[in-house]
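Table 4 source record.
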Amino acid sequence: QCPGIEPLCLDVADWDAVEAAVAAAGPFELLVNNAAVAELEPFLAVTREALQRSLDVNFGAVLHVSQIVARQMIAQGVPGAIVNVSSQASRRALRDHAVYCSTKSALDMLSKVMAMELGPHKIRVNTVNPTVVMTDMGRINWSDPQKSAAMINRIPLGKFAEVDDVVNSILFLLSDKSAMTTGSSLMVDGGFLVS
């Protein structure tokens, strides 16, 4: 359906495999980092394994893939754009989300540093920060009507996001229509953070 796009199926936490596959797949002008895990546990029950997996995927993989792609963009001497998919959870504490909220907050700051350091190379870096999105992971973690009702009641638009809501925001940040936007977080949260 998308000519010119070739998906790579990788464990993004495996730096050696990612290095080999992504380096061979270039050159790149655009990058979207969207891999994430949500290991939901109460703060007092967070395990070392859940913490490490979340750090490896939600933060470390973004850093590593972005390094590989940005180096290629710089070597080509062409402008580029990177969009990192973060979350409203980077800005608001959620019960049982200690690790998820923390890794997404770290991702927001990483994106700002990337924007500062890659800007002179004409590479823009931004995040999209959606509310709950109705993906497979979103359905698994928000299928309980009592849990979901409490969240939806805090969203002024009264619903969770659909995949297209996030995709359209990403497309905007990748496009020339956002040519002066870097280091920003685009909230796709239905107003959750203003409620």
